[in-house]
Amino acid sequence: MGTPVVNVERQSPSWERGQRLATRGMSWTLLDHQRGANCVALYLDPDGEPHRPRTLLSPFDRFISLPVRDAVRVVGVPEWIRYVERLSALRRPAGGLEAVASTGIRLLPYQLEPALAVLRHGATRVLIADAVGLGKTIQAGILISELLSQQPALRALVLVPAGLREQWAHELRRLFSLPTIPSDSTWLRSVASDRPSDVNPWCLPGVYLASQDFVKRPEVLRPLEDVMWDLLVVDEAHASSSRTDRRAAAHAIASRATRVVLLTATPHAGDPAEFAALCALGRIDPAEPPILLFVRSRRDAGGTSTRRSRLLAVRPTDAEVRMHELLERYTAAVWHESATRGDDLARLAAIVLRKRALSSAASLALSVRRRMALLAGRTEPAHDQLRLPIGDEDPLDDDVERVAVLGAPGLARASREQRWLAAIAEAAQRASQNESKARFVRRFLNRIHEPAIVFTEYRDTLRRLAAGLAKDRPVLLLHGGMPPAERSRVHQLFNEGAAVLLSTDAAAEGLNLQAQCRLVVHYELPWSASRLEQRAGRVDRLGQSRRAHELGLVAATTAERIVVGPLMRRAWHAEAMGHGPSALAASLTESRVAEIVIGGAVHPPAEATTPVGGHTAATATIQLREEAEEEVGRLSARRAHLRARTVPEPARITRPMVSSIVRRRPGSDPELILIYLIALMSPAGLRVHTEVLALSLAFVKGDPARVVRRRLRRLVQPFLSPAHPAVFRAIARAVGDALEKASPVHGRVEESIRNRRMLMERMGAAAARRLVQPGLFERRAPHGGGRPAADSASLHRSQPLRPTSGCVLGVDVILAAALRVSRR
Q1: Which of 338, 545, 590, 791 is the most exposed place for a label (fewest CB within 10 A)?
Q2: pLDDT (tens digit, 9 = 90+) per residue, 117-129?
Q3: Torsion angle of the four alpha carbons 229, 508, 506, 115, in this order, in degrees rounded to the nearest 10
Q4: What's the average model confidence in pLDDT over 454-470?
Q5: What pLDDT digit, counting tens, does each position of 393-444 carry?
Q6: % of residues, the chain, pLDDT over 90
Q7: In this structure, are strands 64-65 and 20-23 parallel, antiparallel, or unpaired?
Q8: pLDDT at 271 exceeding the cut of 60
Q9: What is the pLDDT of residues 597-621, one digit of tens each?
Q10: For residues 513 and 532, is the Cβ–Cβ distance under 8 A?
Q11: How many helical (H) and strand (E) elements, i.e. helices and strands, does the chain have?
Q12: Would you call 663 helix, strand, or coil by DSSP?
């Protein structure tokens, strides 16, 4: 007769770790359980299968108790040694990382620092402003995966430019096995039709991926603000500048997020107010700590740039020389007259025309004729009509300039200005018949037999260049007028095969284009050091296996060769020295370069500027390199065991592994080596600290050298409980040391989250209401426009934050292994 089975639900309401159960026609080992109001969630491991734990509910599943296995497992010495070596991979300090060990990414210390700042030091707002190509997406993915491993019901939102949604989804899935919820208009309509009208479409757990232009729409932002987010990630955060709807929406969501991570390679555009607005994103109360800033160059990341950057002078035709001479004289006159009367729009018009001339003669001719028509009072018909429904993204700014700029008068005498413009338009029209840069690029690309990217600032220049190059080889276009799906398709096609990609800055920002390409050509030099680096960073980034090359075309005898070229060469030199363009971004901005090119100013500027990475009141820094290097070593060891599929999870250690060995060294006393696994548990049941403790107990010398398995089991049985008198004191001391190390870390993180959530609960009116024109969609317009969300906390500033003193951690001690050492 077999051993009778007992119905656990009827006989015993208690559950014990290691208990063997049968249900659904399978046998299981109970790893853990959690009681609810009317049910018990059982965390079970199926017997005889690879580690695939599942959670089943009692009494919905009926469980049968199976005969209890032996309390210990006796094995040979070699297997015992291998098992103990694997136990060391379970060691995890408080605030340490774990999920990243199971990914395939390269473990780089600087990429672990932001996650350590959040998980170990309690940072709630982080700005990652590393140089282009250093893996800001990876750093965000590390944090998302770690939080998701600790909190399966994580609610995270990732805001990216619409053209980067597919890339982000692909990278998170490929590198971290993280599924995302693509949140766009189609998804929102589908969710709204599947769920009751009173159910918020954003309320379920998951990692949502949405565009910044999509969430700023009032009808989308309103339900978003009703959700408390565990994590918000904003990519290309510099696009959420002050005084824009993007910034208002991003700040509204960030103010309702426990943790906020901002990503940008160009945080500082020379405007301290814009940088301060970026650093204040998600800040609810002035009493909150400043945002934690990470700024690392290639040298800080442990590498040096091998990129080769060169300027190539292109000799302009006589017609182009005449065009540039006329334009320089006209813009100089406009610049000085507008400076006298303080007209910024006229100076902007001068900048536009000079940059258009360096892009192409045809582009200049188009802008000059448009300016003449605007100054003469002739209005232009709308070429493009908005189509409904409106898409998820606003048009990107790489088309012809706005009417307000080109229509601003530059000279006091309108007739004189019209004569100037007519002469320039005629000269530009002649020069456009045979443009030197277009001819040079076509010859250059025909001589190389590999993919290349040609960057230009304007969409019309892009189309004209494509018409000439398409005769010789395949050409792909990428510009801001394309819908996000089409840009994603071009991105994929270029990364799959050889072609020439013609792109504007607006369309290619943030894309990974290094899979097949290593060559970037600047058709005209941008008047910004940060934009220059953004272009080259499309191919000179992590994952590039070859030397990257960067070529800048400059028109000889023009200001592009004489002024702009040397300024951009200085930025290249700073990048090669490992400093990146950040230190120059505050001085080599477009407006400052324009003052040098048109107004004859001297560089560097006389006014003092604060470089990115310097200490300001809006930012804070922290040194985590040593901690990150220690984490890399620990995670590398764990990864090695994970790849061999030999790491036992603490919850799976229900039967200690026991062995016996005979020591032949004379005079040695017999001993019993006990290895305990000590885990500290949070109130939510998460392991926050794990370490391994080895103890040695002496035995009587007359103890027999060889013992049978039954005697070995009886020998170890009393020590399964950590309360055994022989080991209690040592275990208590080890637990005390562990608590002393882990409690401050856990308490610091919990306190920062608690304080943040207290501020979130005080938030006032929704920002979505303020993004709607008063009275447009409502019968009664609000009075006074409402109070900004960031200011609502000021009503409660008299209520101080009350930090908690200490934290409560549970202790779980498991006998993982034992070894009897006897003397021959």
Answers
A1: 545
A2: 999 999 999 999 9
A3: 30
A4: 90
A5: 665 666 656 677 888 888 888 889 899 999 999 999 999 999 999 999 999 9
A6: 30
A7: antiparallel
A8: yes
A9: 887 776 654 344 444 445 467 889 9
A10: no
A11: 28, 25
A12: strand
- Alpha-carbon distances of 108 from 121, 142, 303, 578, 783, rounded to whole Å: 19, 11, 11, 17, 53
Q: How far is CA 374 from CA 58, 369, 377, in A?
A: 76, 9, 5
Listing DSSP states for 682-740 in one string gives: -TTS-EEEEEEEEEEEE--TTS-S---HHHHHHHHGGGGSTT-HHHHHHHHHHHHHHHH
Half-sphere CA count of 496, side-chain side, radius 13 A: 7
146 CB burial (10 A radius; 0-12, 13-18, 19+): buried
* Closest residue by Cα to residue 695 from 715, 668, 722, 713: 722
- For the segment 55-113, what is each residue's pLDDT rounded down to a tens digit? 888 888 888 887 766 678 888 888 888 888 888 888 899 999 999 998 889 999 999 99
Question: Whole-angstrom Cα distance, residue 739 to residue 201?
Answer: 41
Cβ 257 vs Cβ 230: under 8 Å:
yes
| Predicted confidence (pLDDT) per residue in 725-767, tens digit | 888 999 999 999 999 999 999 999 999 999 998 888 877 656 6
Per-residue pLDDT of 474-515, as tens digits, reads 899 988 888 888 888 888 889 888 789 999 887 677 788 888
366: phi then psi, degrees, rounded to nearest 5? -65, -45
CA dihedral (93, 99, 105, 106) in degrees, to 10, reads 10
Confidence of residue 592 (pLDDT cuts 50, 70, 90): confident
Q: What is the pLDDT of residue 455?
A: 93
Which residue, chain included where needed, has tokens 């906020």?
260
User: In the beta sheet, which residues pair with residue 554?
Assistant: 313
Residue 569, Cβ neighbours under 10 Å: how many?
15
Residue count of the chain, please give it: 824
Structure tokens at 720: 């399964």
Three-class DSSP labels, 761-815: HCCCCCCCCCCCCCCCCCCCCCCCCCCCHHHHHHHHCCCCCCCCCCCCCEEEEEE
Pick from 249, 231, 229, 230: nearest CA to 239: 249
| 120: helix, strand or coil | coil
H/E stretch holding 31 reads strand 26-35
d(CA 210, CA 392): 9
Contact 437, 454 (CB under 8 A): no
